[in-house]
Write a structure and sequence with these properties.
Strand content: 25-35%
Radius of gyration: 22 Å
Number of strands: 7
Largest sheet: 5 strands, mixed, barrel
CATH class of the largest domain: Mainly Beta
Helix content: 25-40%
Order of helices and strands: HEHEEEEEEH
Structural class: alpha+beta
Number of helices: 3
CATH architecture of the largest domain: Beta Barrel
Length: about 140
């Protein structure tokens, strides 16, 4: 083989290895990415989809919407435009309160969100950035 052919083979091999490794990395990340939505975006985007991967929804807990029994917790969250019902089996964080910012992770089925995790931040003024942006866009922002 002449040097030009050897260089071509090495170059093609390197490009093949790089493209294969990039593909595998992106495929692995796709399965682990969890997207964040507001309640309005969730209803609009997923009202017709049946199989929804894990997503996160952020908003404010609606006042007087919290209902607890032994094994289930039900509450609603809102972005001051749309409300979505959340069902959660588990213990809520100590800092979970009505009219406070919260992020829930899980799947939506028939406009009811089945949460696998509820996240509340320690700061009393906590507001997810996406929720704050939505509240600002709707004219309901009361923060700084």
């Amino acid at each position: 083989m002449n040097p030009k052919t050897q260089r071509s083979i090495v170059l093609v091999s390197i490009l093949l290895i790089l493209s294969t490794s990039t593909f595998l990395i992106l495929k692995a990340l796709k399965d682990n990415i969890v997207f964040f939505y507001s309640p309005t975006e969730t209803i609009e985007k997923f009202k017709t989809k049946k199989n929804v991967k894990k997503i996160r929804i952020g908003g404010l807990v609606v006042k007087n919407s919290l209902k607890q029994n032994k094994s289930k917790v039900e509450f609603e969250i809102t972005d001051k435009k749309t409300k979505i019902k959340i069902i959660y089996s588990g213990i809520l964080p100590d800092l979970f309160r009505e009219e406070q910012g919260v992020v829930v992770e899980g799947r939506i089925k028939k406009n009811i969100f089945e949460a696998t995790e509820v996240l509340a931040k320690h700061d009393e003024n906590y507001m997810p950035k996406e929720v704050a942006d939505t509240l600002k866009a709707n004219g309901n922002w009361k923060g700084n």
